């Protein structure tokens, strides 16, 4: 449909704009999530055609076939392993038909995803078996007439290299785009860095290398910078998710706005990306906004600042109640700081950071459990180190997701035996957004019910079934609370259940508009007829840069930052981190008379900035 070949088009200054999510839109249009989306090419082609048409109308000049899972291994889960060729051919034919009917020039990319099985040495599938499966799919796509092969959402670099080798054998003349997916620590599932991935893919002969899925635009721009630095001559591509997903009912919702994506289209272009698009959660509206931004020569490209590459103590059992419980009972303002365990068994850096926080005036440390479903050291271990070596009391985050009732109670007994008596009971992040999306994600008990088991069963000396556990536990139990929720009635309804089950305190969502706390109090009184009395440690998130602020506002569910603070961060320029500290200090002063404490969540592990926030404000 275009007069330039795909490789020729890559040499042009203007990036090629791809499309966005396929599965997200199919699900939004009523297709059950358990459906084999690839089979729709045969059974309901009109549903796929409608989505292709929407992206072409939005301005995409590269659309992907609906074949992400159309390999023999994934299709076998639906009994369709014998239809690999038919499904892939049908996907190409219907996409080519939509392009022809649109009258708009566009390239067609054959989408190839992971096999859905592990390769040796971490799985049972041999490299030659994987290459054969990829070759089968790629041959079908090539013979049907795609312009380029797009390999996407690979978390295992060795699997992607096998797929690339298969493409060179099955369709040697076709260009190939290779996308890796990275965790929130900017490493692949097996620990590879973007620089390593970029060098290996480039050496293996990929025409375009890049990143998709995993995170939102901010993270992918950071990874793309690292790839560019590692291989300056490589042709790059980026297709981010629309922010971090939030589970709402049975659906995953993505918060990044169209305007945010438009800004990042220019960012990716400035980094040097030649192919730009979207992944999970993106829609034709996101693509249209990116199209507008790329086509408007009056908009200046953003400046891109490149990143640098780069005890035997016996545990003493504390007297009850815990220090946290005592401080809350006395009405003393509490300062606690969140720490995320590292993907390592070495705790020294975090212990040093905790010592810094303690000297600055922090009362205790919250230790997260596998935040964003990423593999980390057990939070019990870090809590133990902090309490025995730094002598700071901790709050152990305790998600119910991924634990059955037997494990829940056994883990609670173990925590109590180690002296970990403060708990923050929460649902936890879904495994589908993390390192191991196929990991078990079930749970037997919701957070509100678990609070009841702890307070009314274990703290009285029995397990959930009424059996004696020897002596009562002495847990102080916290729950989650978002005073700024869009649906306050629903949030308060859930909170009432937690209160009835005995919650002792709450950790609040990050505050940027303190006056909204009073709005929550007013609505709580209207609904319950009582004043709200539960101690709240209000979330406080020091901003690090204008990009950090925009990221939080656009990609983190439940966080809203007012324009006035955005303007301050923007004007601060290279001093934005210091301005973020000032803003956090102001917010800390503003909330002191409204809540029982502050729960400070550092950006990028910058604990020294948290210490500055605490240092400047008397909290005694």
Overall 3D shape: globular
The residue-averaged pLDDT reads 89
Q: What proportion of the residues form beta strands (DSSP E)?
A: 5-15%
What's the CATH topology name of the largest domain?
A: TIM Barrel
In CATH, the architecture of the largest domain is Alpha-Beta Barrel
Fraction of residues in helices? 40-55%
Strand order of the largest sheet: 1-10-7-6-5-4-3-2
Secondary structure tally, helices: 23
Q: Mind describing the biggest β-sheet? A: 8 strands, parallel
Structural class: alpha/beta
Residue windows where pLDDT falls under 50 for at least 5 positions: 299-319
CATH class of the largest domain: Alpha Beta
Written overview of the protein:
This protein is of the alpha/beta class and 620 residues long. It has two domains: 6-295, Homocysteine-binding-like domain (TIM Barrel, Alpha-Beta Barrel), CATH 3.20.20.330; 332-615, Alpha-Beta Barrel (TIM Barrel), CATH 3.20.20.220. It has 23 helices and 18 strands. Strands 1-10-7-6-5-4-3-2 form an eight-stranded parallel beta sheet. The protein has an eight-stranded parallel barrel with strand order 11-12-13-14-15-16-17-18, surrounded by six helices. Strands 8-9 form a two-stranded antiparallel sheet. Helix 4 (45-58) packs across helix 6. Residues 299-319 have low confidence and may be disordered.
